[in-house]
Structures are given as structure tokens and as C-alpha cells.
Amino acid sequence: MGRLVSILAPIGIIIIVGIGGSVVLNMIKPEPEKADEARAGLNVFAEAIYRDDLHLTVEAQGEVRPRREIVVAPQISGRVSYVAPDFIDGGFIKKGQLLVRVEAADYELAVVRARSGVASAEQRLARELAEAELAVQDIEDLGIDDASPLARREPQLAEARASLDGAKAQLKDAELALNRTAVYAPFDGRVRERSVDIGQVVAAGSALGRIFANDVVEVSLPLDDGEMGRLGLPLAFAASAEQPGPKVTFTATVAGQPRTWTGEVVRTAAAVNSMTRQINVIAELKDPYGAGADGDAPMAPGLFVNATIEGDTIPDVLVAPRGSLRGEDKLFIGNAEEGKLSIRTVDLVYSDASGAYVRSGVEAGELAITSPVQAPFDGMSITVMERLEDGSVKIHEPDSESDTGDATGAPATVAVTGAEGNPQ
After folding, report:
1. Residue 27 and residue 21: Cα distance in Å, rounded?
2. Which residue has the higher pLDDT, 150 or 404?
3. Whole-angstrom distance, CA of residue 68 vs CA of residue 56
4. In whole angstroms, what is the distance from residue 256 CA to residue 400 CA?
5. What's the CA gap between 156 and 177, in Å, rounded?
6. How far apart are CA 25 and CA 34, in angstroms?
């Protein structure tokens, strides 16, 4: 028995000491500090919303064509005896300039014959006048009161007058044909093509070439109903001094260099295209080879150009980045101080590559999120990284009081500048 006690006594003492030591150590160890819970917020890029006037524009394309272009053709037939040196592909011509002459010998002879006919008709009329006077005198001398018109030679006199009128008409016709042996330019312009040369026999109405006026060129621009509305144009529009048409800026690449010309809308087409449901708006550029040219580059017919048409101006709208528009009328707004996402429904006016223009739903100065956000919801935790105008990125840390209970409550802002505006 004594031996058993001597064995268990040390074991009991060790257990008691161990338990007591553990209790004492637990009592004297320091209280561990509580660490702030790490905040898990999605990093998103955002840009500030601002106010500005909205200048509506419409983009279109079309081919340049001259307002006046004709086929040069003679009104008589004959052999070509002369072709003007300027009447050649690409040549410049002036109004009234002789382009082509047809041999005139046959027509000159016709004029001589017609003049002879007029002289004969005049002589016959003179003779009939004299005979009519004698006939009237004889009737009066004989005291005849009921002489017939034939006795007075009235029909013969009328016939002589008609013959003279016919002879004069034949003379005018011959002179007109003689004048038409020369073909003149009806306006200042250029030659698109020539299809005749000296010695060639041409018929009346046959094509000698094509010329166009270089005072005005036109571009037909197809627009849909929405684009017409942005321009404020009715379907039946014709520019006037009281109601001028919208300005149009034409652009194209000529000889490897970008070129620009400025014209205006002058009218709309008469009807809507039944196939495309669009209507053509006609824009003009005056003096394309002179004052209207871009330096040494005219807006020549046949050139395919892009056109920017100036529309209405809507003052004082809110402008958000185009990438921030979600769907048709939603914007994601980042609350930088709270680190929260807000989904707003806005009154969208118009959107293009430069921005989304809205009337209401957001305020100027708020940050519109441009980054893609998966499964977004109101109040979602985010960290807003604002893109500044100089290309740098400003990281907005959320208000620590709202998230961690810090008594200061001051938001932390860090400006980061990277080569591409990426967070560092």
C-alpha cells in the first residue's frame, strides 16, 4: 500500500502543477489585437460625367457628280472639218467656245437658193400689188359696186404674200442650218470624253462627246428617318436665303493625302426609295476647281467622299463615356467614397463614339464606370479608378468609417500614372 502511494503521489503533484500553470498562463497572456477584415472590392475604371452642348451630326457617303452634264451633238449632218484643241478628254472649255465645226458648203448653197426664192417672191408680190391697184381703179371707173374679190385680185395678192412668207421662212431655215454647222460650249466646264475627229461624217443627234459644268458639283447622300430628324430636315426641303441648308464637310483621300471640302445641303429628293426606305439629301459644293478646292485638290466628279452633316444643337446635356452605357438606357455609377456601385436609368438623347448624351438620371461630376462588370447589382463593392484628362489614373479608396469603423472617415486618394493608364 505504501509503495502504491509513493508511486501515485508524484504523478498527482505533476498533474496539479500542470493544470495550475496552464490557468496562470492563460490569465497573464496579452489579449490578441483584432485585425481589420480585408475588403474584397472589384477594381473598375471610371470617368467623370460633365455638362456640354450636344452638336448633332450625321455621317453619310456618296459619289460626286456634276450638276449639269450633257452629250455634245450636232443638229445637222455632215463631215467634221474642225475640232477645238481644248475639246479633248480632261480639257477645260469656256462658255461660247467653238468645239466642233461641220463642213458648211452645202448649207451655204442652201442659203443662196433660199435668198433667190425670197427675191422671186418679193417680185411676184410687187407685181400682184400693182395689178390689184389697176383692177380696183378699173372697177371704180366702170362704176361697178358689187365686184367680186377675184375681180379685185384679192386672192392673188394673198397668195403672193403667203409665197413671200414661205420663202423668208425657207431662208431662215437655211441660215439656221448654216449656223448649226458650228457647235459651241453652252457653259464653262470640262470635257469628260470626246468621240469625234476631223474627217468623220456625223449625223444629226450623234454623240460628239460629253462635257460637264464645273461651277457646282453635287453629292447624293442617302439618310434614314432618324438621321433626317437629327438634322431637322423635312422630307420636302429646298434651301433658301431665309432657310439655308445644313453645312456639310466632305472628306476623301486624294493622291495619298486626306482632303477636306465644305458645302451645304440644298434640297431633298422628291420621293423615298421604296427599296431602302431612305431619302436622298442633295449637298452642293460651289466652284470645286477654284475657291471650293482644298489647295490643289478639287472635288472632282466621280470621287467617292465621306460627308459629315451638321444637325441641331441641344444645349446643356450630361455627357458620359460611350463605354459606360449599358443596354439602351442604363449607366453604372461608382460611389468613390463608399466604394459602391449604383445602377441608374437615364433619359438618353443620343450616343456615338465620342459619348453618351443624357438629360437626366445622373449628375455632373459623378463617375461613370467604363469597365465590364459581371453580375452587377446595386451596392456591389468596388474600388473606383478614375481616368483623368492627362491620362493618369486616380485610385479612390473607400471611406474607412463606412467599411472599417475608423473614426477619421476621410477617403484616401492615390494618383497613379502608367504608360497606358493601368493601375500599378
Report:
1. 10
2. 150
3. 32
4. 58
5. 32
6. 21
Q: Is the pLDDT of residue 1 over 60?
A: no
Q: CA 112, 117, 121, 124 torsion: positive or negative?
A: positive
Segment 233-291, tens digit of pLDDT: 888 889 988 889 999 999 999 988 999 999 999 999 988 988 989 999 999 999 999 99
Show contacts of 190-194: CB within 8 Å, 24+ apart. 190/90, 190/91, 190/92, 190/93, 190/214, 190/289, 191/86, 191/87, 191/88, 191/89, 191/90, 191/91, 191/93, 192/69, 192/89, 192/301, 193/89, 194/83, 194/87, 194/88, 194/89
Amino acid (1-letter code) at residue 68: R
Residues 338, 383: Cα–Cα separation, whole Å: 9
Phi-psi label, residue 69: left if phi above 0, alpha if psi -120 to 50, beta otherwise: beta
Count of alpha carbons within 13 angstroms of residue 261, beta-carbon side: 34
Nearest Cα neighbor of 305 from 256, 250, 255 is 250
